[in-house]
């Protein structure tokens, strides 16, 4: 009997735990929908089936809200979309929906699979966010570090969204936070090229900055990874040279590579306010 009772308690605990993590508390200002597959047409492996998932956070009682598709960092080698929970809670409180995305990693996959996953998540958002109350004219893509790289490359290289019969011009804006704007170091590592080598080729956002892309706000910390600020300044300069009048760079004092995206929970976070101002000017 004791064994049966313990089993019953365990089942109840699991049920309550799952409910807690997949539904919002009554006091929350958002609704969360978890574990949505965004690449159902191309789930060729168990890894793809488990990894190509996203969570949608959307504000309660608000219609036609902007949405940010958010990609986490981790050098294209690791991480979890749960890194973005504080981000999602802060922005839903501001009346903005957030889509947190998981994608596949190197070395289990090679370039450009993670870029293709990111594009598929953006395409899913355009196809589905209106069902949750979002405005299709107000979809932004953003991310930190490797996630900033993904936001920039998908927002600039037309090939990825064209695979989904979509144009990058539909994106309202891209907001890379400390994103790598030259060809990503993990891609270079897959080619056997030493760390620290700077290459600008078709897998570099800078390579595509010769073309007018979506509105852009690049954000870095003044104590970021060496060269990271310079990459972003160069990227924005390229966009401006191409004629993009909504390309901007912000360098935040007192922030490093981690803290630049680590204070979304703070009321006076400068990065949050810069993003909100950028989004609201384009709404």
Model description:
- An 8-stranded mixed β-sheet has the order 1-2-4-3-5-6-7-8, sandwiched between helices.
- It has 10 helices and 8 strands.
- With 283 residues, the chain is of the alpha/beta class.
- The chain has a single domain, classed as Alpha/Beta hydrolase fold, catalytic domain (Rossmann fold), CATH 3.40.50.1820.
- The protein has helices at residues 2-22, 46-51, 85-93, 113-128, 146-156, 158-162, 185-190, 205-208, 228-242, 270-282; strands spanning 30-37, 53-59, 65-71, 97-101, 134-144, 173-177, 215-223, 247-256.
- Strand 3, helix 3 (85-93) and strand 4 (97-101) form a beta-alpha-beta unit.
- Helix content is 37%, strand content 22%.
- The chain starts with a helix and ends with a helix.
Short key terms for the protein model shown above:
single chain; 283 residues; alpha/beta; Rossmann fold; 8-stranded mixed β-sheet; 10 helices; globular
Layout of SSEs?
Layout: H1 2-22, E1 30-37, H2 46-51, E2 53-59, E3 65-71, H3 85-93, E4 97-101, H4 113-128, E5 134-144, H5 146-156, H6 158-162, E6 173-177, H7 185-190, H8 205-208, E7 215-223, H9 228-242, E8 247-256, H10 270-282
Parallel strand pairs: 3-4, 3-5, 5-6, 6-7, 7-8
Antiparallel strand pairs: 1-2, 2-4
Q: Give the radius of gyration.
A: 19 Å
Count every beta strand, where a strand is a DSSP E run of 2 or more residues: 8
- Largest sheet, order of strands side by side? 1-2-4-3-5-6-7-8
- Stated plainly, the CATH topology is called Rossmann fold
* Approximate shape: globular
Whole-number mean pLDDT: 90
Assembly of the depicted chains: single chain
Overall helicity: 25-40%
CATH-defined superfamily = Alpha/Beta hydrolase fold, catalytic domain
Helix-strand category: alpha/beta
H/E series: HEHEEHEHEHHEHHEHEH
Q: How far is it from the N-terminal to the C-terminal residue, by CA?
A: 61 Å
Number of domain units = 1
Task: Summarize the biggest pleated sheet.
Answer: 8 strands, mixed
| CATH class membership | Alpha Beta
If helices are DSSP runs of H or I spanning 4 or more residues, what is the number of helices?
10
């Amino acid at each position: 009997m004791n064994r049966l009772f313990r089993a019953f308690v365990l089942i109840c605990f699991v049920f309550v735990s799952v409910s807690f993590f997949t539904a919002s508390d009554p006091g929350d200002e958002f609704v969360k929908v978890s574990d949505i597959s965004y690449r159902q047409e191309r789930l060729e492996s168990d890894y793809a089936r488990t990894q190509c998932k996203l969570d949608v956070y959307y504000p309660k009682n608000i219609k036609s809200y902007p949405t940010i598709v958010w990609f986490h960092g981790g050098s294209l080698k690791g991480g979890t979309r749960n890194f973005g929970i504080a981000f999602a809670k802060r922005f839903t409180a501001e009346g903005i929906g957030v889509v947190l995305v998981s994608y596949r990693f190197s070395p289990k996959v090679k370039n450009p699979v993670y870029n293709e996953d990111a594009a598929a998540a953006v395409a899913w958002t355009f196809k589905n966010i209106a069902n949750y109350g979002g405005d299709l004219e107000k979809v932004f893509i953003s991310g930190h570090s490797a996630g900033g790289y993904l936001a920039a490359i998908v927002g600039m290289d037309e090939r990825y969204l064209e695979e989904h019969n979509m144009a990058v011009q539909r994106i309202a804006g891209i907001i890379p936070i400390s994103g790598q704007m030259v060809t990503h170091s993990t891609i270079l590592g897959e080619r056997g090229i030493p760390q620290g080598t700077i290459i600008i080729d078709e897998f570099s956002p800078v390579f595509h900055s010769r073309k007018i892309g979506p509105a852009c706000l690049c954000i870095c910390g003044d104590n970021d990874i060496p060269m990271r600020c310079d990459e972003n300044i160069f990227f924005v300069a390229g966009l401006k040279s191409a004629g993009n009048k909504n390309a901007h760079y912000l360098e935040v004092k007192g922030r490093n590579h981690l803290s630049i995206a680590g204070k979304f929970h703070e009321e006076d976070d400068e990065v949050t306010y810069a993003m909100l101002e950028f989004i609201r000017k384009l709404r």
